[in-house]
From TrEMBL, chain A:
Its EC number is 7.1.1.9. It is an enzyme of class 7 (translocase). Residues 25-529 form the Cytochrome oxidase subunit I profile domain. It comes from the Bacteria. Pathway: Energy metabolism; oxidative phosphorylation. Pfam families: COX1. This is Cytochrome c oxidase subunit 1. The gene is ctaD. It is a multi-pass membrane protein. It catalyses: 4 Fe(II)-[cytochrome c] + O2 + 8 H(+)(in) = 4 Fe(III)-[cytochrome c] + 2 H2O + 4 H(+)(out). NCBIfam families: CtaD_CoxA. It is found in: Cell membrane; Membrane. Belongs to the heme-copper respiratory oxidase family. The chain crosses the membrane at residues 38-58, 78-99, 120-140, 160-186, 198-227, 247-271, 283-307, 319-341, 353-377, 389-413, 425-448, 468-492.
From TrEMBL, chain B:
It is found in: Cell membrane; Membrane. Its cofactor is Cu cation. Belongs to the cytochrome c oxidase subunit 2 family. It comes from Marinobacterium weihaiense. The keyword Repeat does not apply. This is Cytochrome c oxidase subunit 2. Residues 118-255 form the Cytochrome oxidase subunit II copper A binding domain. InterPro entries: CcO_II (IPR045187), CcO_II-like_C (IPR002429), Copper_CuA (IPR001505), Cyt_c-like_dom (IPR009056), Cyt_c_oxidase_su2 (IPR014222), Cyt_c_oxidase_su2_TM_dom (IPR011759).
Automatic annotation (TrEMBL), chain C:
The chain crosses the membrane at residues 39-62. Keywords: Membrane, Transmembrane, Transmembrane helix. This is DUF2970 domain-containing protein. Pfam families: DUF2970. It comes from the Bacteria. The lineage of its organism: Bacteria, Pseudomonadati, Pseudomonadota, Gammaproteobacteria, Oceanospirillales. The keyword Transmembrane helix applies.
């Protein structure tokens, strides 16, 4: 390790460091700078989307309309969903990939650094445009993040056109990011870093990138069809002109279902890096983990209509999608079993990243169980579009994807900043988040089963008590994220010096370079350390 | 968009008023419902739930056992196994067996739910922004069902009653022990008609017809809501089904049709401006105020103001036309089939004479009734 | 052992990827000696067969239900 460090230092010594001033960030082609920008951007969006969530929960604190009008409430649910999916979760994963993939495979940078810069810098403009719709006449998009036609076409506010353009830009950014990651992983691996040795985070991202390339054009297609219906007189989704509103849902969910795996597969990768480190034991069933990821990716294309069990599919269609959906439980189960088997007979410690990873395994699995329940079509008639669904997808996305991102950030912060995290503050953040997330989302199972539909600004009295609990939890969870912000800033500014191998059990090329990682790493391909050969 | 803080605080005090009434109501589970189908759905739900609980106990049990016993602080040494294909195949096959066991009853229930033949009673359900229309297809009876919760309760100016947001002006009355088929469609956007106690939830899609069926076993009042986001007042279009005995149902049908005829006769007599204004206000609050607001000021950029507008102050013919026929490509619906001639005349009169609009002229119900004549019996556009 | 995995071995590997479980030894063999195009083609074929399989299962279930 130390030899590698010194060679790195001498090799990079002659290189230029980062440019000065704002130009460093505007024109950078450095994967670390771009990764940081992605992560900060996603944190900003996380707080923006979070404020919207708190506005929703505040309105739902009690029955009756108190704070916002129903129209504005719908804008909040729509923007919250869009911003969290496209602005917070996806860019965070791309940011982590930018930082870590080249360091994990021993590459000097991403394969296509200029495109990398461009794919990031599209995002602030796309989201500035999306958020600007809030100030337009008629308000922001108010038709839900799933924007079902004809509510999003014939009956949409004028700002829908800006929304369509923003979605196109996000799609371009995602596709470029995905191409870059595929090109990097396939072409830039250090000698000896075969596909079989690829860290699981790289594997899951590689498969995610293929999913992105497959489905983002479908999203672009569906919003373009909307644009044509709104402005150019076509009738794709208008029955009066011979179209079909349900066609929209088929196309949307053909994108949408792989999209939900785009938001969870990289999380699986992060967790599969963290658990072995803190269990001080190799990942159980590495091969199966890769194959289960592939399996989930394949199945994700064959289950889209399980979001549409109540639209009146023919019986054969219902059965097809019910069977296919139930099968997804199998590879997902393989993953959970393997994580548990990794912990079994390990030597575990419980630093902040591990706490988040363990919470991920438990809470994501709970989300998986409710997913299995939702897969049973006849019962889904009762669950569909209720808070039970809201509870389900928040369990897989918040303590699922978001906890995995936070685990990843805490895990790699020492590598990025050169400082160890203040463990006490990390634990505080974890426990506040863990309690907050469960107090918020667990009661939603109950109010959903009791019959409360989703996306309503006001509700009948029998749902009042649990809604109040959920709102209290949401504020606890929301404000405890300020501790996260504090932790990150504190870690950037100072703290105990981190060693190259910041965690005792950590394996992998990224832990062979100094902490903080120099501006340029692996300018010449590294020799793989003993443990990776 | 943000109301005064005072309202918020006021409603905070209102908290005690309703929570005492509902304190015991921490409902945590699905309703078993009142039909055979809803019971088998409930049984499926409980079966899959307990299967999930059992799997969770095993998986989390092993996990927490490891967390407790295999921690470094207890001196645990890491073992070095990291693969066992046989074990993995076994723990992959077990879930498959469980899933197959689950799929069989689920398929049977689903097949049953899809068998919509041989109904004794056909009800067409049409979703409108934001109300339901019910057509008793073989009985020549049609009516709309609107939310009847007063605005003051929604805006926290009055105490909320027991069925807050789950009450309508006209119930969908259905007979028990009768095989009923629902035919669902929509006039504008996609809605979804849902009554948990019947385990019926089906999307109402413009231009398409979906079907579902039920046989209700017990008389009673069953409440549900629109389940698909359908715009601003999605949360304010409940469904209320009243199940009565077959004899009571026949009686109710006869009464409802007699009332319709009386209503038509009322259009023939002469109405004074005051009478029309009085009825017009009620109709306006029920049918128009959701978009144009009770004060007629609308929502800029979404729903135009009626106060001081060119239509409510301009030519009466154009005003009648837009109310009767709607404006295509916008949220303005055609009200010719939704309201009676008297109601239409009253609401148009009201719009022309309220909130400082003061033309002083009345639109007579008879005049509207003549305009409605040619369209009678036709399907609405 | 010949270097290139034969058709049955390729098929087995693709099926493992559908199932989600694979042994380390087979994976190593595949990545060391296999050619990606074989796996992609077999994968597409098996995906089609999988869809057809589920459709047949649905047909069978419906015929049992008498529809």
């Amino acid at each position: 390790m130390s030899t590698l460090d010194t060679t790195m230092a001498t090799e990079t010594g002659g290189h230029h460091g980062p440019a000065k001033g704002i130009g460093r960030w505007l024109f950078t082609t450095n994967h670390k700078d771009i990764g940081s920008m992605y992560l900060w951007f996603s944190l900003l969006m996380f707080f923006l989307g979070g404020c919207m969530a708190l506005m929703i929960r505040a309105e739902l604190f009690q029955p009756g309309l108190q704070l916002v009008e129903p129209g504005f409430f719908n804008q909040m649910t729509t923007m919250h969903g869009l911003i969290m999916v496209f602005g917070a979760v996806m860019p965070a994963f791309v940011g982590l990939a930018n930082w870590m993939v080249p360091m994990m495979i021993g590459a000097p940078d991403m394969a296509l650094p200029r495109m990398n810069n461009w794919s990031f810098w599209i995002l602030p403009f796309a989201f500035a445009m999306l958020v600007s719709t809030l100030f337009m006449d008629g308000g922001a998009p108010n038709f839900g993040w799933t924007f079902y036609a004809p509510l999003s076409t014939t009956y949409a506010p004028p700002s829908v056109t800006y929304f369509i353009f923003a979605v196109h830009m996000m799609g371009i950014s995602s596709i470029m990011g995905a191409i870059n990651i595929i090109a990097t992983i396939l072409n830039m691996r250090a000698p000896g870093m075969t596909m079989m040795k690829l860290p699981l985070f790289c594997w899951t991202w590689l498969i995610t990138a293929f999913l992105l390339i497959a489905v983002m054009p479908v999203l672009a297609g569906v919003v373009t069809m909307m644009l044509m219906d709104i402005h150019f007189g076509t009738s794709f989704f208008d029955a009066a002109g011979g179209g079909d509103p349900v066609l929209f849902q088929h196309v949307f969910w053909f994108f949408g279902h792989p999209e939900v795996y785009i938001m969870i597969l990289p999380a699986f990768g992060i967790i599969s890096q963290i658990i072995p480190t803190f269990a001080r034991k190799r990942l159980f069933g590495y091969a199966s983990m890769v194959y289960a990821t592939a399996s989930i990716a394949i199945l994700s294309f064959l289950v889209w209509a399980h979001h549409m069990f109540t639209v009146g599919l023919p019986l054969a269609g219902e059965l097809f999608f019910m069977f296919a959906t139930m099968l997804i439980a199998v590879p997902t189960g393989v993953k959970v079993f393997n994580w548990v088997a990794t912990m079994f007979r390990g030597s575990m410690t419980f630093e902040t990243p591990m706490l988040f990873a363990l919470a991920f395994v438990v809470l994501f699995t709970i989300g998986g169980f409710s997913g299995l329940m939702l897969a049973i079509a006849p019962v889904d008639f009762q669950y569909h579009d209720t808070y039970f669904v809201v509870a389900h997808f928040h369990y897989v996305l918040v303590p699922g994807a978001v906890f995995a991102i936070m685990a990843g950030v805490y895990y790699w912060l020492p590598k990025w900043t050169g400082h160890m995290l203040n463990e006490r503050m990390g634990r505080l953040h974890f426990w506040l988040s863990f309690i907050g997330v469960n107090v918020t989302f667990f009661p939603m199972h109950f109010i959903g089963l009791a019959g409360m539909p989703r996306r309503i600004p006001d509700y009948a009295l029998q749902f009042a008590d649990f809604n109040m609990v959920a709102t209290l939890g949401a504020f606890l969870f929301g404000f405890s994220q300020l501790v996260f912000l504090w932790n990150v800033i504190a870690c950037v500014r100072g703290g105990r010096k981190a060693e190259a191998r910041a965690w005792e059990g950590a394996e992998g090329l990224e832990w062979e370079v100094a902490s903080p990682a120099p501006y340029h790493t692996f300018a010449t391909p590294p020799k793989l350390p003993e443990s990776l050969r | 968009m943000v109301r005064t803080i005072i309202t918020t605080i006021g409603s905070g005090l209102g908290l005690t008023l309703y929570s005492t009434a509902t304190l015991a109501d921490w409902t945590v589970n699905l309703t078993p419902g009142v039909t055979d189908v809803s019971r088998s759905v409930f049984d499926l739900h409980m079966t899959i739930f307990w299967i999930c609980v059992a799997i969770a106990l095993v998986v989390f049990g092993v996990m927490f056992w490891s967390i407790f016993h295999h921690r470094k602080s207890r001196g645990a040494q890491a073992h070095h196994f990291h693969e066992n294909t046989l074990v993995e195949v076994i723990w992959t096959l077990i879930p498959i067996v469980i899933l197959v066991a689950m799929a069989i009853p689920a398929t049977a229930t689903l097949v049953d739910m899809y068998d919509t033949d041989e109904a004794e009673l056909d009800i067409q359900i049409t979703g409108y922004q934001w109300k339901w229309r019910y057509d008793y297809l073989d009985h020549d009876l049609t009516f709309f069902s609107n939310l009847s919760t007063p605005r003051e309760q929604i805006s926290n100016e009055a105490d909320k009653q027991e069925h807050y947001l789950l009450e309508v002006d006209r119930h969908l009355v259905l007979p028990v022990d009768t095989r009923i088929r629902f035919l669902l469609t929509s006039n504008d956007v996609i809605h979804s008609w849902w009554v948990p106690a019947l385990a019926v939830k089906k999307d109402a899609i413009p231009g398409f017809i979906n079907d579902a069926w039920t046989v209700i076993n017990e008389p009673g009042i069953y409440r549900g809501q629109c389940a698909e986001l359908c715009g601003k007042d999605h949360g304010f279009m409940p469904v209320v089904v009243e199940a009565v005995s077959r004899a009571e149902f026949q009686q109710w049908l006869a009464d409802a049709r007699a009332a319709e005829q009386a209503e038509a006769a009322a259009a023939e007599r002469v109405w004074t401006l005051d009478e029309l204004m009085q009825q017009g206000e009620q109709v306006y609050l029920r049918a128009c105020a959701a978009c144009h607001l009770p004060n007629g000021e609308g929502v800029p950029g979404a729903f135009p103001a009626l106060k001081g507008s060119a239509i409510t102050l301009g030519d009466v013919g154009a005003h009648i036309d837009i109310v009767l026929n709607g404006k295509s490509g916008t949220a303005m619906q055609a009200f010719r089939d939704q309201l009676s001639a008297t109601e239409l005349a009253a609401v148009i009169t009201y719009e022309r004479n309220a909130w400082g609009n003061s033309l002083g002229e009345a639109v007579s119900p008879a005049q509207i009734a003549r305009l409605l004549q040619p369209a009678t019996g036709e399907a609405e556009q | 052992m010949s270097d290139q995995p034969n058709f049955w071995q390729t098929l087995l590997s693709v099926l493992s990827s559908f199932f989600g479980v694979q042994s380390e030894r087979n994976r190593e063999r595949d990545f060391r000696h296999g050619r990606p195009i074989h796996y992609i083609l077999t994968g597409l074929l098996m995906a089609t067969l999988f869809v057809l399989g589920v459709i047949l299962l649905v047909r069978w279930a419906l015929s049992l239900a008498g529809i």
